[in-house]
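question for whoever is on the cluster today: can someone run the full assembly for these? four chains, 718 residues total. i dont have access anymore since they changed the login thing
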Amino acid sequence: MRRTTKEKAAATPTARRGRSTGRPTIRDVSRLAGVSRMTVSRVVRGLDLVLPETRDRVHKAIADLGYVPDRAAGSLSSRRTGFIALMLPTLTNANFSAAAHGLTEVLRAADYHMLIAYTDYSIDEEERQLRNLLARRPEAIVLTGWLKGRMASRMLLAADIPVIEIADLPRQPIGHAIGFSNYEVGRTAARHLLGKGFQHVGAIAGSNEGDVIDHRGEERMRGFEDELRQAGRSTDLVIRQGNAPVSYGHGAALVPRLIDKKIDAVFAVSDLSAVGVVMECQRHGIRVPEDLSVMGFGDFEIGSVINPRLTTIHVDFKALGQRTGQLLLQLVNGETTLPPQRIDVGLRVIERTSVRTAG
Amino acid sequence: MRRTTKEKAAATPTARRGRSTGRPTIRDVSRLAGVSRMTVSRVVRGLDLVLPETRDRVHKAIADLGYVPDRAAGSLSSRRTGFIALMLPTLTNANFSAAAHGLTEVLRAADYHMLIAYTDYSIDEEERQLRNLLARRPEAIVLTGWLKGRMASRMLLAADIPVIEIADLPRQPIGHAIGFSNYEVGRTAARHLLGKGFQHVGAIAGSNEGDVIDHRGEERMRGFEDELRQAGRSTDLVIRQGNAPVSYGHGAALVPRLIDKKIDAVFAVSDLSAVGVVMECQRHGIRVPEDLSVMGFGDFEIGSVINPRLTTIHVDFKALGQRTGQLLLQLVNGETTLPPQRIDVGLRVIERTSVRTAG
DNA sequence: GGATAGGATGTTCACGGTAACAACAAAGAA
DNA sequence: TTCTTTGTTGTTACCGTGAACATCCTATCC
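^ ran it for u. tokens below:
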């Protein structure tokens, strides 16, 4: 020790004053190591301004006490929380969790922590969750919803942090946007099926009633219908029924109506629903794709496993998450002057065997 | 205003001193509403000690400024962060995310926020992630792994917060435990298949090599093998191959070996792997269950959709998450004297049609 | 030898809230 | 009337850390 610190030592180290808990703080470490709190702080943050000998003494004290720095206190002082907020409709969708996964991967390396909230497709939850997230002072926020509320926008504005909207590319982005067009997904699906020569092209999606709303699915249907109209076809075979999030059961339940309507090719709003259709068809002795062609969206793993393998539309959600992470890092590391980015990660049809060539 | 506050007003409200950012703070609200910061704090927390007239004035100021309280600052002072930490192996497993979902649901109502970290089945990540979590000062922590490291235990101890281990019931719980026995899963599966009269009973699981380890799957295999031995059967037909987390491809890839070994009933470590087996069998013209009976674990939704529907073992992960949430709330609300709980949520065989009755 | 530069460490104060307690007014009790 | 109680609001002092700046020491240079 080159110098004696003037930091006052408590008469009894065990005597805790005020509101403090029993957890070791930076002060305990500093006393044990015989240095100032600031020196400990420097060691903890790996600032490399400290003599190796001192550093080792501090590290030993940290290990002895099982000290873990309090990031809440740290961020209060430094104005950097190391949080990135992420708002999702649900955790139980493989594509969203793939995006979250890609995001986390990139940010983890930079010592950022994702703060995840999800709304279960409920609009009311959105504002509540947003407030909760912002209260943690994230350095940036990633949204998947279409934030509508006036109060929500006000809060986002006051928060004054970078905003990235992912998954669906909004027409009027709040800040940056990385994703793809669900509208184009619908158009692409319709174009693909029409191109195969089908006469009775239908689609199945959830209906949007009450508080639970799936904008993304509805966008896909809009695109699908527009493409149908443009080709001079009727949109009567587009069926909306059941609530988001749709799953296997959704598709299975709609098979009777598909038969009723004599549909020969159907686009399902999600691969899960499409798989449900295929499996239910097997039970009814309806051959896929001979009697009914089925196309999905999302390229969920299960689609590539079933018989026949599912034709679908692929979007690389993990890459989407990773790109978001990279942009995020640029933004929080000072490149605040970056003009609003709008990145379309695109989509592509994966042709497998659940769609035949007709006519 | 009944009294004039002595809180010093800045000469120029816009002039920011020190390190502060542009975001409105409780002080800005207090000035605008003409009350003390403490009064604002009471209104924000809904403490109902404030005159309605004053409360309204404060609410208006909050709305005007778009003020969102800083929870980091609040928790530093109150010693309550409102965080519950959750460590998972992965987010992309439907059962784990169901548990996370159930947990979040319960805690959300009590204004707690889940802080999620996941390790991707890597041991090295575990300690790093644990440190990151503890740095946020969660009021309790929920673990799914088997924490091994000495340092990890030291940190957990120093954190001095309730610990709940979920999913797998450990032999020596650190604190509380809610879950089921993966060992029993294996035994139950073996018993079920043996009870059906099969002669060549096998199983497929991941192998545990390198840093990536799936304790849970291995436990199931241990139980399976023990039951086999106890029945005087050979365990030669238990195949370990591929890394956790296993998915559809795992099962599909192992079908040739199942044929090779003339296995007539197989237990897959996970439904996903089992579904892979079933689908691949269809491609090879192997009939399920006539030629090969298949049993899975986890009761994933897809299992109830495929043909034939998958016989499996069900554990109610969502309920598991909810019960964890309820216990958590008891623990953080003062019931610290609660003796260590050990709750077995049990498991049950779901008989469907992928397993036949033999001999 | 004295001035200067730079490395290692220390001190002070602010970050944005809240616990604890104090102060004061109005209403009720003795 | 005076004392006590109750309800509302304010003041003070922290919570644990980091930014900014200060200080001390050693090495180097002319």
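summary bc i know u wont read the tokens: The mean pLDDT of chain B is 90. The first strand of chain B starts at residue 83 and ends at 88.
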